[in-house]
Amino acid sequence: MLSKLKVPLEKQKVMPVNGDEAVAYAVKQCLVDVVAAYPITPQTIIVERFSEFVANGEVKTQYVPVESEHSAMSACIGAAAAGARAFTSTSSQGLALMWENLYIASGFRLPIVMAVVNRALSAPINIHCDHSDAYGMRDSGWIQLFVENSQEAYDTTIQAFKIAENPEVQLPVAVNLDGFFLSHTLENVYMLPEEEVHEFLGGYRKPVKTYIDYLNREVEYKLDPASPLSIGPLDLYDYYFEHKMPQVEAMKRAGDVVRGVNEEWYELTGRSYGDGVIDSYAVEDADAVIVVLGSSAGTMKYVASVMRRKGFKVGVVRLRMFRPFPFNEVKDLLKGVKAVGVMDRGLSFGSYGPLYLEINTALYYSRERPLLVNYIYGLGGRDLSPAMAEEVFIDLINTAKLGEVKEYLKFIGVRS
Amino acid sequence: MIEVRWYARAGQGAWTASNLLAMAAVIDGKYVQSFPAFGPERSGAPMFAFTRVSSEPILVHSMIYEPGVVVVLDHTLISSRDTAAGLKNGGVLVLNYSGSIEKLYEMLGVSRGLYKVYVAPATELAMELLKRPITSTAMLGALVKATNIVSMDAVVKALKERFPSPLAERNIELVKRAFEKTVEV
Asked: What is the ipTM of this complex?
């Protein structure tokens, strides 16, 4: 199987880099026209490293250091609307400041890629890992992918451009990597020769063609004085609703595109992440299954493997894609499991964790629903130790034995 | 999988040492993780860094609670409270220390034979060769002597990648001198 790979492992360069650098190297290889970023806290090493590539003449990218994250997203929107391949990265408050522009990027159907290094939101001030920032952009119309390690951060950043620019999708993509646990952790990352990445992406971005009635021809969907068109004009109750429906449809198609790109990546590199959408571990015969996002999935899989050797039937479902949410796949996968624990690194105050709510919705249509518990963990960077992970599994196994849920919402690793 | 905990004062280069160990292990064909106990660093404040080295891909993404090896870069951090905390029985302690061994065991508060204890006069060597008390590379040399996690060849290659000349050569000499001077006590 391995001999059939287009770029076998020995032709990939292994580099010891952290998650941020892995993303920066990926962006370097993606023929990105414009990178716009606010260069001060809570910015990441991603653009710091990338600005060095620009300064050294290693890339031809136009690097725009702007005065805020709001402007960073605005600049990406402008660049992408003019047909450019655009990238930015941010974190926590920076992502919060971009909020209104996130909706414009997706509403304009611009294939911008953004790395989100997941960190807590103030107050209190905190710079550590938390998924609250990503959960805050849940409804903004972006595709949201979460990675488990630095290798996947590299791979997924490249894939994100291909997913975003697919004519069936044409939506912005956020690549989420855990603050510090990935962003500042040095790991082995296998990188492709640059020309292989260029070929994978089909060269520079080519905007999709669209039929314009007043020109009576197909033109590239971009701002170009030679074939003028408007992007995002006033659109009231007469058409706004209709113009939102293509976004609904594009999201429906995105899952298959993510899966397809994952498969293509496997043929190219030998690496794949589950089916691209869901990466599950030992779920088939499991009585107790944990559903989780990001780097904690690795810790849960490790603990599950240790517990399996002791005879506990436990498994892990890592959702690689949070938006669009794979409801049917989750429903099928968790069918027959006795107890499911959903781990959220963030919560909606006055409600549950956002991931739990999705899983709950997915399972509602099952005839035999698993018992379901929401575990809130790791807020503000609190470490999820293997011992803590084992406690969660044990609690879930006990829930399965008991046959009912006593407490639906539990907080893990917090002092009373 | 081998798990190493580095204990130092911020500014002494524990994260650099951890990264160098990881880089050397990658050169040796291993899988690695290297990360600090994350915090806004204040120079001189006690801090941890962690390294994992394995022949298999590493799944776990948490801090290290039960290390097999502990390296201490600053002798003032040697104490019975936390130096050997969580260290596995038979684990390895590599300490920047020169002085009475009797007193060392008293400070550590552990009986002889519980761990393999190695000491290196890292501060003296760093002052001699770098003219400053940055003990990270010296303690990396001590670690190479005390364990077989990485080869000296790989460490030398990693230093050449990480530092420009002549800093690389000075640190290579420091690593080798520290290797020679490290003894089990």
From this structure: 0.94
